[in-house]
Design brief:
Layout (H helix, E strand, L loop, with lengths): L3 E6 L9 E5 L3 H6 L6 E6 L2 E10 L9 E4 L1 H7 L6 E5 L7 H8 L6 H12 L5 H10 L7 H13 L12 E5 L9 H10 L4 E5 L9 H8 L6 H11 L1 E5 L8 H12 L4 H14 L4 E8 L8 H17 L3 E8 L7 E2 L1 H12 L7 H19 L5 H10 L2 H13 L10 E6 L4 E3 L4 H10 L9 E4 L6 E2 L4 E7 L2 H13 L6 E2 L4
Parallel strand pairs: 1-5, 2-4, 7-10, 8-9, 10-11
Antiparallel strand pairs: 1-6, 2-5, 3-4, 3-6, 12-15, 13-17, 14-16, 14-18, 15-17
Helix pairs in contact: 3-5, 4-6, 6-11, 6-12, 7-14, 7-16, 8-13, 9-16, 11-12, 14-15, 17-18
Catalytic activity: thymidine + phosphate = 2-deoxy-alpha-D-ribose 1-phosphate + thymine
Keywords: Glycosyltransferase, Transferase
EC number: 2.4.2.4
């Protein structure tokens, strides 16, 4: 009896998790004892993958001599209609014993982390096994030596960019602050100063926008390594999506599991950030850590602990790391969502009178910090950054970067909008970062680039009853109604404290 089945595309997006669909009365399912959630090896020529099995009931949409592959499985296998794949049980993951050891509190060595990373990239680990590893490493369960070992394992599993000994500047924000889209402004300023700054950024997973989502509103971001190098050599900087590059590729697999579980691990965060910075060839990295009650880093003590680990492991990795602690009390700028954040970025670069001053100030702080690092003289970089911004040099450089990446385009406005108004007069003293981000996501961000939130009132404002607090932007009336219902059920996102006359 043959072990091959005809491969067909399921056209189901399972993100990075390869999934195969087989009929329950398929002869291979019966002979091999395959059942739902079984890990199955599929060979096609020289390529192979390990996928998770989903079983289709008898009489369903799949024929007994077919196996349907999810989008990620189809792509990874390089399958074409009419191909026949060979099915078998995969060998047990070599990292299983390492994961078990870590779960029982044992320390892992560099070779152990390397095996886990390799099995992750080969999809030998089920989501349960990967979740077990990440849970065993969460909190403070990775010490400094283990953090370095995990960072190196993640770095060694992918490609690296080499800039031939030149100084390469970079910045990173640990996140948790809606609208904090400083990166395109910082890259433009630093590149205008004549420095190299090849910035790779992520798309949003659970937030209303990642830097790549916002930049993609204005220019293409899906560049490969060769195209990235060409852009940077031509104009000094770029802002591209890191997912199109093979730089620390295991990180995306880890994030896919960490985000839904809301895992918080100093070691994993440090390994994620520094492995990507080392992979892109950075020599000097400025890390922004917003601290606030609803930000990702919620206290100064947590920031100090994270900062100490970043500095120590960065030093071990040969990276010059500088920390920047910033205010994380509330959102930055006015826009939350790709197009709305892009509009803020352009307003700052174009020196418009209504540009959000908090976004401008934060971008100048970070760009100034990087220019201080480049010059080796502390305290003069911010003034130089402001001069480059105010003269229009940064705007010109940004347009050059967009042109080099494939062409600039203006952000589009959302067709459906609704204002949320203040129920009474008083002082706006807090904004819940997590709830406001949730509303923006329910409106369609980041999938719908024009969707999100535009803040009409800011922290510290005195507002009158009936005054707009924020406006929900959506691509459709249905999405607008969905976000509006949630917003109206959560007035605590912007509580108004009554002020005695």
């Amino acid at each position: 009896m043959t072990q091959t089945l005809s491969l067909v595309p399921a056209r189901i997006d399972t993100y990075r998790q390869p999934v195969v669909y087989m009929a329950e009365d398929c002869h291979i399912c019966r002979a091999e004892g395959f059942a739902a959630q079984t890990r199955v090896r599929i060979d096609l020529g020289e390529r192979w993958i390990v996928a998770t099995l989903n079983v289709v009931a008898t009489g369903g949409w799949l024929k007994v001599d077919q196996a349907a592959l999810s989008v990620s499985a189809w792509s990874a296998l390089g399958a074409r209609p009419g191909d026949r794949g060979r099915f078998s049980h995969p060998e047990p993951a070599a990292s299983a014993t390492r994961i078990r050891a870590k779960a029982y509190g044992e320390r892992l060595a560099g070779r152990d982390f390397a095996v886990v990373v390799r099995d992750t990239l080969d999809n030998r680990l089920s989501e349960i096994e990967l979740a077990a590893f990440l849970t065993a490493c969460t909190g403070d369960r990775l010490d400094e030596v283990e953090t370095e070992a995990l960072t190196r394992a993640m770095l060694d599993a992918g490609d690296r960019l080499d800039w031939e000994g030149r100084r390469v500047l970079d910045k990173h924000c640990v996140g948790g602050l809606p609208g904090n889209r400083t990166t395109p402004i910082v890259v433009a300023i630093v590149a205008a100063a004549g420095e190299l700054i090849p910035k790779t950024s992520s798309r949003a997973i659970t937030s209303p926008a990642g830097t790549a989502d916002t930049m993609e509103v204005m220019a293409p971001v899906d560049l490969d390594a060769a195209a990235l190098r060409k852009v940077v050599e031509a104009v000094g900087g770029c802002v591209v999506w890191g997912g199109a590059l093979n730089l620390s590729p295991a990180d995306d697999h880890f994030i896919r599991i960490e985000r839904p579980l809301d895992l918080d691990s100093t070691g994993q965060l440090v390994a994620s950030v520094l492995s990507k910075k080392a992979a892109v060839g950075s020599s000097h990295v400025l890390i922004d850590m917003p601290v606030g009650p609803t930000a990702k880093v919620r206290s100064r003590s947590a920031a100090d602990a994270l900062g100490a680990r970043l500095l120590a492991v960065g030093r071990r990795m040969g990276l010059d790391v500088t920390l920047h602690i910033s205010d994380g009390a509330g959102p930055v700028g006015r826009g939350i969502g790709p197009a709305l954040e892009a509009a803020d970025v352009l307003a700052v670069l174009r020196r418009q009178a209504d540009a959000p001053m908090d976004l401008r100030s934060r971008a100048l702080d970070l760009a100034g910090g990087l220019l201080d690092i480049a010059s080796g003289v502390h305290g003069k970089g911010r003034a130089r950054a402001a001069a480059l911004l105010d003269s229009g040099a940064a705007e010109a450089k940004f347009m050059m970067i967009c042109a080099a990446q494939g062409g600039f385009r203006e952000p589009e406005a959302a067709p459906a909008r609704h204002e949320i108004i203040a129920p009474r007069a008083g002082m706006l003293e807090t904004i819940d970062n997590r709830i406001i981000a949730r509303i923006a996501k329910l409106a369609g961000a980041p999938r719908q680039k024009c969707a999100g939130i535009r803040l009409d009132s800011r922290l510290g404002d005195r507002v009158e009853a009936g005054q707009p607090l924020y406006t929900i932007h959506a691509a459709t009336r249905g999405e607008l109604a969905y976000a509006r219902a949630y917003a109206e059920a959560h007035p605590e996102v912007m509580p108004i404290r009554e002020v005695t006359p």
